[in-house]
Amino acid sequence: MTVRERFEKMISWFESQMPVAQTELHYENPFQLLVAVILSAQCTDKRINMVTPALFKAFPDASAMSSATSEEIFELIKSVSFPNNKTRSLMGMARRLSEDFGGEVPSDMDALLTLPGVGRKTANVILSVVFNQAAMAVDTHVFRVSERLGLTTNSKNPLQTERVLVKYIPEEKIPVAHHWLILHGRYVCKARRPDCLNCGLTSICRYYRRESQK
Q1: Which burial class, exposed, middle or buried, applies to 72 when counting CB atoms under 10 A from its CB (0-12, 13-18, 19+)?
Q2: Could you confirm whether 121 is annotated as catalytic?
Q3: Of 139, 167, 173, 195, which one is the catalytic site residue?
């Protein structure tokens, strides 16, 4: 099976089994999603969704958050991973949005990367989810699933994986494909124990073929 054939079969299966796929983070506007994504690094969406309602109520926009003290923000997010670092990131991001972008979340990669706490993965999530751009965010789930299925081979980092995925996935399908792979990795192709018996992609999966031959 060629790489292109593997991608085609993967897309066909997801389109039939998961035609609607979207982020599990709760948000009402681009600013809230940006906050939630920054907080979600190395933390579960479930935990973030427990924390953000009070945070958004206290600081509904960039202007409000930019005026907050670190103690105020920390108190509201202290149950997430790395709360000290994320407090600094949220404060810096809100100030930069207020000072340089009129409080609005920018819609291009270069501008997003100037915001504290925003790396390429976070920027791609915003571009894809908010602005429906052909941006492929590669988190640990996407990286793992892509390698196991055989969509990528020996990728050394998320950027290598991203480049392969955007090469083979049609541009208009990239925003939803990002969620396909994340959700598949979160609930089926889990890190420690993939649920191969309940996976519909075993026919194309390099990992499954290798494990079944042991």
Answers
A1: middle
A2: yes
A3: 139
